[in-house]
Every structure is written in structure tokens, then in C-alpha cells.
Write a structure and sequence with these properties.
This protein is α/β, with parallel strands linked by helices and 520 residues long. It contains 14 helices and 18 strands.
Length: 520
């Protein structure tokens, strides 16, 4: 087959939680790629003519009747293929090898030994005993190889860790090279793409930008697009991208739900005027949101109510705008994966993210989500490319439902105001201490707990604020940021001294997992 898209890689999603990490690693290597669903795979590949195909992992068992299948034709197209976990198992299953359920499931770190010298394992890092650390997550295993395949690596327990039909350029890895705990994972993916598939790494954020501009123009035509603006990095980048693509056909709507940070609405409006060349509609709907959330304490209900109300307001505003056909949103990949899925994916829902989960079926606008495949740092890079200033680009992520999900229990106006003040002090102190840009996300949570204190000579009985500071690269996992003792003391003193209604400050020391970043 003649390759038209010389450097394009297709990643076939079989439903793994880490499919997007594969995309991320490929882009880090500088290669252009796209995720596609496993359904209609053959025709999709014929149409796209990729230079390589990577099959992701997934939760199914390849030997079960209802599991996602792989059209045998795909394996005969002379396109190099790398199957990861389920991807490797489905290659074996399709070509007549044997996959079965293992009596010892492997999760977490493991060590592999290379059996056969191969380009795939060129330059990988070994420990003293000639083993290389990888990350496994599987319950099934390959026990018999298809014709023409060799085992390229095994685990210490003698299980097959990698297979290959070198003549046909079809490879499989039982472990996950996309995960950072596989020490040489990125090198292995790079070996496959560059050494085996001979792809020239030439992908840059400008390419993504140019491709998006063309696609947005094509999709929108003469219609108008409404964009939900929150002032955060994601929605600002989407607005700037659309503004650049379609100019005046973009109308941004900024809904204030009442859970923004202190004076945030003013800041958002001013920034919009300064950096965008489109129309802005500002709707202050805080009263409605407070009313709808009265007596609601369950986090999922809060999220659902806010999401639903938000969209309702959008619809109402959209109806006032002639020819409005599209709704643009700054949905990022972590929102997509944690809310549910990419097409055909069975991964479990953790939270109903505001941008995705709350969309009612009756929505009359077609969604445009140009950042859907990007991680936060890539969005920041795109924002820079679009000319946005660093005070917008470097802003910490802020969730769609805003401060409402940082107030466990019932939300009241009084609590929101306390949290706004505490948050302002915290962010101010971080900036003064030159820590803001070292931290991925920092915020206060107002706990539904009052405790006794002594301030001056009097007894106090006030709320508790918990501070959170995490480091992360994509929001999918996070570690806590360790503050110095002096900083914590100073901050605690400032919050209690400057914020009325708080007499105790706690420091949240939980990573993600097991906790999530937000409290709700
Ligand atoms: P969690 O709490 O799920 O958060 O670990 C991961 C990242 O996503 C942000 N977040 C949201 N962002 N809409 C958003 O746009 C939402 O509904 C939402 N909920 C959480 C969170 O702040 C963190 O950066």
C-alpha cells in the first residue's frame, strides 16, 4: 500500500485507561498520531494509510466471544504493528496463537529479560542482573505463539513479555511501555516508530494548531460557534484557537455560577477584551445555582446539577444567537477518560466531569472539543503558540464546578465567601514565595467541620480549611508538594489572621491515587 500520510501513526483504542498515554509518548517523540476506535478498523486504516499502527490494551479477554475483535486483514496490510497488552493478545488470538486466563494476575512493577536481540529493545536500560523494569497490568497471558512469531522477552516467572514476527514487522508487548514505571518504555516506543517503522519525528504543536484551524473552518462553515468561557487555561486556549480560526463567527458566553474565585469575573472579562477578537456575553446566574444546590450534599449530585444548569443557560443564550450551531468546550483528555470513555471504551467512571458528564441529551448544539486529545502541558504550549500571556497560560487548573466542589457538604453563600478569601490568601502567598509556578495545582477546601480555638483571650468556634498542593504532569496522577515548615506556618497564620470564620488550617498529604485531586 502506498503511504500518503507519511509520518502518521494510528493508535487503536481497545478501552485501556492508559491509551492516551500512548498518544502522549508518541507526540513526545515528535511523531504525529491519532486515536481511533477498534470498530470499522480495516476501512479506517485503508482510508488513513498510517505509517504504523499501535493496538492499545483493554479490559476484555481476547478469547471471549463478545470481546473486541481484530480484522485479520489489518495484519496483512504490510503496515508495522505494535500490540500492547490486550493488543498483543488479540494479535495472537487472531493469528492462531493461544491466550488464556492466568492463575496469577500481574499488576505493577515486573522485570523482563531479553531473549532475542531486536531493534525494539535497542538502548534500553538494564539493572545489574540484566533485567529491565516494566509495568504490568493483566489477567490473561499468551501461552502459545502464532506461526512466524518468536518470544522476544520473558518475565522472571518465565511468562511471555514480548513477541515479534520480525519479517512482518508485527510486535507485541505484554507490559505497558506508555507508563513511566516502565523505565525504558519511551525508548521502546521510539525504537518501534523510528528504527523499525522509519518514521521521521517532525510533529510540533504548530502542526496541531494548523491542522485544527483547517478542521474547525471546515466543520463550522458559515455557521456560528458558541464557546463556554471560564477564564481558565483550557477555555481561554479554545476561545483563542476559535477566534483565530473563525474570528467574528465566535461568540463566547461566560456564565458566572457564583463559585468563581475572588474577583475572577472581572479578570476574565478584562482578559477577553484584551486578547480576543470576538463577542462576549456575560451571564450572572449565581442566584439560580445557589437555589438549585440548596440542601444538596452528595458530590455527584452537585456536579450533575451544576452541569445540567450550565448547559441549560447555554442553550438559552444560544437560542438568542442566529445561526449558532456549535458549542466549543475546553475538554481535555483527563476529563474524557475519567468521565467515561473514548468510543468503544469500557473503562470505569470516577467522577462526572462538568465538561462532559452533565451534557443533557436534548442539547441542540453540536460539540467542538479541539483539546480533547491533549494534556494540560500541551494545552499550555498551544496557548503560547496562540500568543496568550503567561498569566493565563500558567494558571493552575480550576474545575468547571469551581469552588462548589471544594466545599464538602451543603453550599452556602457564607461558606463560599470564606473559601474565596482563604483561596486568595493562599494563592497570594504562593506567588510571593515564588512557589506558584512550581506547583501544578493549589487550592483550599472548606471542611464542614467546626472546631474550638483560642484567639486573643476568647474562645472561637470556627471552620477548618484544608490546603492542597500537588505536582502532576497530566492530572491523572499527582503527588503532594512538600512545603517548608516556615511556609506552612506563615500561610496558616495568614489564613487565620485574614479570613474571618476560620480558626484551623490542615495540610492534605494525600497523593492521587488513592485520592483524587479535588475533594469531590
Ligand atoms: P480530580 O479531582 O478528578 O481532578 O483528580 C483532576 C483534574 O481535573 C480538574 N477537574 C475538573 N476540570 N471540569 C474541569 O474542567 C470538572 O468538572 C473537573 N473536575 C475536576 C481538577 O481540578 C484537576 O485539575
Amino acid at each position: 500500500m502506498k503511504n500518503k500520510n507519511l509520518n502518521k501513526v494510528l493508535v487503536v483504542d481497545f478501552g485501556s485507561q492508559t491509551t492516551q498515554l500512548i498518544i502522549r509518548r508518541i507526540r513526545e517523540i515528535g511523531v504525529d498520531c491519532e486515536i481511533i476506535s477498534y470498530s470499522n478498523l480495516y476501512s479506517n486504516i485503508r482510508k488513513n494509510r498510517p505509517k504504523a499502527i499501535i493496538l492499545s490494551g483493554g479490559p476484555a479477554s481476547s478469547f471471549k466471544k463478545k470481546s473486541p475483535k481484530l480484522n485479520k486483514q489489518v495484519l496483512k496490510m504490510n503496515i508495522p504493528i505494535l500490540g500492547i497488552c490486550y493488543g498483543m493478545q488479540i494479535i495472537c488470538q487472531t493469528l492462531g496463537g493461544k491466550v488464556q486466563s492466568s492463575n496469577r494476575r500481574e499488576f505493577g512493577k515486573a522485570e523482563i529479560k531479553i531473549l532475542k536481540k531486536n531493534l525494539l529493545f535497542n538502548r534500553i536500560v538494564f539493572s545489574k542482573n540484566n533485567a529491565s523494569q516494566v509495568w504490568m497490568s493483566h489477567g490473561d497471558e499468551v501461552v502459545a505463539l502464532p506461526k512466524g512469531f518468536d518470544a522476544l522477552a520473558k518475565t522472571k516467572a518465565n511468562n511471555i513479555a514480548s513477541i515479534g514476527n520480525i519479517k512482518k514487522n508485527i510486535y507485541g508487548l505484554q507490559f505497558h511501555p506508555e507508563v513511566i514505571h516502565t523505565i525504558s518504555g519511551k525508548i521502546i516506543i521510539e525504537n518501534f516508530l523510528v528504527k523499525i517503522c522509519k518514521i521521521q519525528p517532525d510533529w510540533k504543536i504548530e502542526n496541531f494548531l494548523n491542522r485544527q484551524i483547517i478542521e474547525i473552518r471546515k466543520k463550522v462553515g458559515k455557521e456560528r460557534v458558541i464557546c463556554g468561557l471560564s477564564g481558565g487555561v483550557d477555555s481561554s486556549v479554545v476561545a483563542a484557537l476559535l477566534s483565530k480560526s473563525i474570528g467574528k463567527s465566535l461568540i463566547c458566553i461566560f456564565v458566572n455560577h457564583g463559585f468563581l474565585r475572588k474577583e475572577e469575573e472581572k479578570e476574565v472579562i478584562n482578559n477577553f477584551k484584551k486578547y480576543m477578537n470576538s463577542k462576549l456575553v456575560y451571564v450572572n446566574a449565581s442566584k439560580t445555582f445557589y437555589l438549585k444546590l440548596k440542601n444538596i450534599t452528595d458530590p455527584e449530585r452537585k456536579r450533575k446539577i451544576i452541569g445540567k444548569e450550565f448547559i441549560k443557560i447555554f442553550e438559552k443564550e444560544a437560542q438568542k444567537i442566529k445561526n449558532a450551531k456549535f458549542l466549543a468546550q475546553g475538554t481535555l483528555y483527563p476529563d474524557v477518560i475519567e468521565s467515561k470513555k473514548i468510543e468503544g471504551n469500557n473503562s470505569k467512571a470516577i467522577k462526572s466531569h462538568h465538561n462532559v458528564g452533565g451534557l443533557p441529551k436534548r442539547l441542540n448544539l453540536t460539540l467542538i472539543e479541539p483539546l480533547r486529545e491533549l494534556f494540560k502541558d500541551e494545552v499550555r504550549e498551544l496557548g503560547k503558540e496562540l500568543g496568550l500571556p503567561s498569566n493565563i497560560i500558567q494558571r493552575h487548573p480550576f474545575p468547571g464546578p469551581g469552588l462548589s466542589i471544594r466545599i464538602p457538604g451543603e453550599i452556602t453563600n457564607k461558606k463560599v465567601n470564606i473559601l474565596k478569601e482563604a483561596d486568595k490568601v493562599y494563592i497570594d502567598e504562593l506567588k510571593k514565595s515564588n512557589l506558584y509556578n512550581k506547583i501544578w495545582q493549589a487550592f483550599c477546601v472548606l471542611l464542614p467541620v467546626k472546631s474550638v480555638g483560642v484567639m486573643g483571650d476568647s474562645r472561637s468556634y470556627e471552620y477548618t480549611v484544608s490546603i492542597r498542593a500537588i505536582t502532576s504532569t497530566d492530572g491523572m496522577t499527582a503527588d503532594i508538594y512538600y512545603f517548608r515548615e516556615e511556609f506552612l506556618k506563615r500561610l496558616s497564620g495568614r489564613i487565620i489572621g485574614e479570613v474571618k470564620g476560620v480558626n484551623r488550617v490542615l495540610f492534605d498529604i494525600t497523593s492521587k491515587p488513592p485520592a483524587t485531586i479535588e475533594w469531590e
